[in-house]
Design brief:
With 228 residues, this protein is mainly beta. The chain is 6% helix and 46% strand. The protein has one domain.
C-alpha cells in the first residue's frame, strides 16, 4: 500500500520541463530554512480566529486563490469543496475569499499546535465548511525546495471514519505558468510532503475532496543548501 502511495504522487503531469521530485520533508528541514507554524497567534479552540484577508510571513503570503483564477464549487458525496479554474495573472498574487470563506487558524489536536483551516462553500459558521476550502501560497522569491504538512481525517483505530480522499497540488513559476499538477492520495492523520524542483516555484495552490477536510501547518521554504 505504501509503495503504491509513493508511485502515485511521484507521477505528476508536467507542463514545463522540470525534474520536480518528492523528497523527505526532514531532509529539507535539516538545512537552514524558514518555517511558518502559525504559532505566533494564541492557541484558540475551533472554530478559531477567522481571517478575511491574506496571511503574511517573511517572504510568504497565503490566502484562498490566485488572482485571475475563478473559484467554483465542487459537490461530491463527501461534501462541498472549493474548486479553482482558469489561469493565474502574472505575477502570481494571492487573493482572499469572501468574508467568512477565506480561512481560520486554530489549535489543532492532530498537530498539537495551531494550524490553518481553509474555509469551503459552507463557510465559517458551519463545521462542514472548515477544511473544505482551497489554499494559495506565493513566495517573494522562487523556491527550489519547499514543503508543508497536511492533516486529513484523524487516525481511526475503530474503522468508523470515512477513508481520506485526495488533494490536488498545483505549482506555478514566476510567470504564472503551470509547472506541474500533482494528485496526492491522503491518509489518516498528519502527512509531510516536500519537493525539489529545477524550476523556481513562485506559487502553489491546494485543493481537496477529503470528507473531513484538510488543515495546513509547518510550511517550509527558503531552504539554504549547506556547503562543504
Amino acid at each position: 500500500m505504501i509503495r503504491n502511495f509513493v508511485i502515485l504522487i511521484c507521477l505528476p503531469s508536467l507542463s514545463l520541463a522540470s525534474d520536480l521530485r518528492l523528497v523527505p520533508y526532514d531532509s529539507l528541514r535539516s538545512q537552514p530554512h524558514r518555517i511558518e507554524t502559525f504559532d505566533g497567534l494564541p492557541r484558540t479552540p475551533e472554530p478559531g480566529i477567522i481571517f478575511d484577508h491574506h496571511w503574511r510571513a517573511p517572504g510568504l503570503s497565503i490566502a484562498e486563490h490566485l488572482l485571475g483564477q475563478i473559484l467554483t464549487e465542487k459537490a461530491t458525496d463527501d461534501g462541498r469543496f472549493d474548486e479553482l479554474t482558469g489561469s493565474p495573472d502574472t505575477p502570481p498574487r494571492v487573493v482572499p475569499g469572501q468574508s467568512g470563506h477565506n480561512f481560520t487558524i486554530s489549535d489543532h489536536a492532530g498537530f498539537g499546535s495551531n494550524a490553518l483551516f481553509p474555509l469551503g462553500p459552507l463557510g465559517f459558521a458551519d463545521a462542514g465548511g472548515r477544511g473544505e476550502g482551497s489554499i494559495a501560497l506565493t513566495f517573494d522569491e522562487p523556491q527550489f525546495a519547499f514543503g508543508f504538512r497536511l492533516h486529513a481525517e484523524y487516525l481511526d483505530p475503530l474503522g468508523e471514519r470515512p477513508m481520506p480522499r485526495t488533494a490536488d497540488i498545483a505549482f506555478y513559476d514566476a510567470d504564472a505558468r503551470l509547472i506541474t499538477d500533482v494528485i496526492l492520495p491522503l491518509q489518516h492523520g498528519v502527512m509531510s510532503f516536500a519537493w525539489r524542483s529545477s524550476v523556481g516555484i513562485a506559487a502553489v495552490t491546494i485543493e481537496n475532496v477529503d470528507p473531513g477536510g484538510i488543515t495546513l501547518d509547518d510550511v517550509l521554504y527558503n531552504v539554504q543548501e549547506l556547503s562543504g
